Every structure is written in structure tokens, then in C-alpha cells.
């Protein structure tokens, strides 16, 4: 019998969803694509309460039967040029055992549905240049590099840690 996958918005107040979010993000963080380090105890304890305290955050979970196998965390931002909300896809995680089955694509479809419901003008995300499977997925579902004027080049994602 084929596995039955379902995708839905996570409920931060539901203990099973909270456990799934932490477990899936920890698995992703522990993977080389996520940095290869498990979540700190601080992050494990505070992640879901902190997400829940932010009205512009939402998460999507994927299930194989009753088992959570995929997670997308999103944070709403704002496009000043369009004067509309945007949704940043912050984490996309699928358990290694379930990759290549269309689960991430289904979760991103749900993210897009929620973003449209919120009146967002676009989705954004970051991806490591060496993560070819993720790049193929993102391009397949409509993501592309960002630029305003080709003469100015493509946008790059930068960070500065604040201690």
C-alpha cells in the first residue's frame, strides 16, 4: 500500500506539532545541508514558543500517516517597493528517508496558498549554492534568482552575526 502524505499548517499550541517542529528542525540542523550541528538546548526549548509569539511566523508540516516527515518555517516580511507583505521561506526540511517523494513541493504549495491568503506579493528564500537538489526543486516550483537590473547583477544573501 502506498504511503499517504498530508500537508497542513502547524498549530504551535498543539504539543504533537510542537514536538514535530523541534524534531524536524533538529534533524535538518544536524544534516550537512543545515550546518551539521544539532539545535542547542536553548533553541529546542524556546523555538516553538518564540515562533508562536510572532504573529508573522507560520510553519507547515508534512505527514506520512501520523509521522511528521517534513517542515517549512516561514516569516512574513514587507516589500517596500510593492508596499505589500512578502513571505520568507526560512527552513525547508524533509527527513532523509522521505526525500525525493514530492513532499517539499507539496509543503511549498501550502506555503504559497497561505502567502496568497495573507496578500503577499512574493515568496523569498535562501539556498546554498552547492545544494543542487534544492535548487532544482525551487526552480521547478517557480523560484528564480533576484535582480532588478541585469547590469547591476544578481542579489546575494549576506549575514552579520550580532553577539
Q: What is this structure's SSE topology?
A:
Elements: E1 5-9, H1 15-30, H2 41-52, E2 57-64, E3 67-79, E4 84-94, H3 103-117, E5 123-125, H4 132-140
Parallel strand pairs: 4-5
Antiparallel strand pairs: 1-2, 2-3, 3-4
Keywords: Acyltransferase, Transferase
Pfam family, one: Acetyltransf_1
Domain N-acetyltransferase: 8-163
Helix content: 25-40%
Poorly predicted residue ranges: none
Annotation field: number of helices? 4
Shape: globular
Order of helices and strands: EHHEEEHEH
Q: Mean pLDDT, rounded to whole units? A: 94
> What's the total count of β strands?
5
Largest sheet, described in full? 5 strands, mixed
Which strand order do you get reading across the main beta sheet?
1-2-3-4-5
CATH class: Alpha Beta
Distance between the termini: 51 Å
Report strand %.
15-25%
Structural Rg:
16 Å
CATH architecture: 3-Layer(aba) Sandwich
CATH third-tier fold name: Aminopeptidase
Oligomeric category: single chain
Number of domains: 1
GO molecular function, one term: acyltransferase activity, transferring groups other than amino-acyl groups
Keywords: Acyltransferase, Transferase
InterPro entries: Acyl_CoA_acyltransferase (IPR016181), Bact_Acetyltransf (IPR050832), GNAT_dom (IPR000182)
Protein name: N-acetyltransferase GCN5
Amino acid at each position: 500500500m502506498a504511503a499517504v502524505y498530508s500537508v497542513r499548517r502547524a498549530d504551535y499550541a498543539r504539543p504533537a506539532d510542537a514536538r514535530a517542529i523541534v524534531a524536524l528542525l533538529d534533524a535538518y540542523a544536524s544534516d550537512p545541508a543545515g550546518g551539521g550541528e544539532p539545535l542547542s538546548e536553548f533553541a529546542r526549548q524556546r523555538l516553538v514558543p518564540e515562533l508562536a509569539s510572532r504573529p508573522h511566523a507560520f510553519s507547515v508540516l508534512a505527514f506520512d500517516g501520523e509521522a511528521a516527515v517534513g517542515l517549512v518555517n516561514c516569516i512574513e516580511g514587507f516589500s517596500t517597493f510593492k508596499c505589500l507583505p512578502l513571505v520568507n521561506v526560512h527552513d525547508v526540511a524533509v527527513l532523509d528517508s522521505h526525500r525525493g517523494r514530492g513532499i517539499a513541493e507539496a509543503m511549498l504549495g501550502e506555503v504559497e496558498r497561505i502567502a496568497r491568503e495573507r496578500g503577499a506579493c512574493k515568496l523569498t528564500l535562501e539556498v546554498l549554492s552547492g545544494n543542487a537538489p534544492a535548487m532544482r526543486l525551487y526552480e521547478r516550483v517557480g523560484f528564480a534568482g533576484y535582480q532588478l537590473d541585469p547590469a547591476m547583477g544578481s542579489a546575494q544573501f549576506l549575514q552579520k552575526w550580532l553577539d
